[in-house]
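Section 5: illustrative case.
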């Protein structure tokens, strides 16, 4: 491929991205008038948020439904053709329906429109035509801005589908924030993969109390070294009145090598050590270890008592990176 052809391809890509980006920016500056009301309608829904569309709009509807479901709003996609052959029974009073059609005249959606009207099910319409049949039937109208499609013939759904997807994301995130959706809630719906690992709590990965290498502040270093060797973490916690008051690491051993065996654990330990809590995110604990160039953190409760230990290797094995 010669340089001229490569540049033509790059110019096409840049033009498409610029057209679609400008359309999204224009929508951000002039959100549909019913947007806030639509958010409140979703929040008030006792059942599920049902999305539907045909063709490209159907693909976008599936993605928006998935985003709702993963951020705390029960949701499902219903194919309009299947709805006409029995799946209308999936749309029940108490649900809310979001129908997507750029033209607003998609024939396949008519049975769903009639069904929601019959059972007084609230409906949000996303369309590019304000006076379309779909928008006239909707309770909440989310009008897409008038923007050109990005393809060279101006007909293939490109800008319109990007706008719809972005508007769906905005709707889902606005609902998510109004609902007070937190990272721990997010993990409930994302237990697998990197997201699940990043949202793991320290309590899920830490070693329990029985595995802890703990010594008293007055314990001789000869005994402390035995505990460190037995537990195998390369670290020991120093406790006083059941509270963690210090940590002994390999670095502490090297710094006190000259008279190590004549000293106590409390004399060798680094006091006020870095610690974490059971409810902390493992990713945050890993960041603490990396930032302080240490390989393990003791886990303490509200009273400062050691209840676990998290090692760097525990985080790596779980995929927390």
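Designed sequence:
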């Amino acid at each position: 491929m010669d340089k001229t052809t490569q540049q033509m391809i790059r110019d096409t890509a840049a033009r498409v991205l610029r057209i679609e980006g400008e359309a999204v920016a224009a929508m951000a500056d002039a959100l549909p008038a019913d947007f806030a009301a639509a958010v409140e309608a979703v929040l008030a829904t006792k059942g599920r948020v049902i999305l539907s569309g045909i063709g490209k709009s159907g693909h976008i509807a599936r993605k928006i439904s998935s985003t709702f479901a993963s951020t705390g709003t029960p949701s499902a996609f219903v194919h309009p053709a299947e709805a006409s052959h029995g799946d209308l029974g999936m749309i029940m009073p108490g649900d809310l329906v979001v129908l997507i059609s750029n033209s607003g005249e998609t024939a396949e959606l008519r049975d769903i429109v009639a069904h929601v009207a019959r059972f007084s099910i609230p409906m949000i319409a996303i369309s590019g035509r304000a006076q379309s049949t779909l928008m006239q039937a909707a309770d909440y109208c989310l009008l897409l801005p008038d923007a050109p499609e990005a393809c060279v013939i101006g007909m293939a759904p490109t800008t319109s589908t990007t706008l719809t997807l972005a508007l769906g994301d905005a709707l889902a995130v606005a609902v998510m924030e109004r609902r007070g959706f937190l990272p721990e809630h997010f993990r409930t719906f994302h237990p697998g993969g990197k997201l699940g690992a990043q949202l793991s709590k320290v309590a899920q990965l830490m070693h329990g109390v029985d595995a802890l290498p703990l010594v008293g502040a007055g314990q001789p270093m000869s005994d402390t070294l035995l505990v460190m060797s037995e537990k195998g973490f390369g670290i020991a916690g120093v406790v006083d009145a059941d509270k963690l008051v210090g940590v002994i690491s390999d670095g502490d051993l090297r710094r006190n090598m000259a008279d190590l065996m004549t000293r106590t654990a409390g004399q060798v330990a680094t006091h006020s050590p870095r610690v974490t809590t059971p409810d902390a995110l493992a990713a945050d604990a890993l960041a603490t270890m990396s930032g302080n160039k240490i390989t393990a953190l003791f886990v303490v409760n509200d009273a400062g008592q050691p209840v676990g230990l998290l090692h760097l290797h525990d985080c790596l094995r779980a995929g927390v990176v």
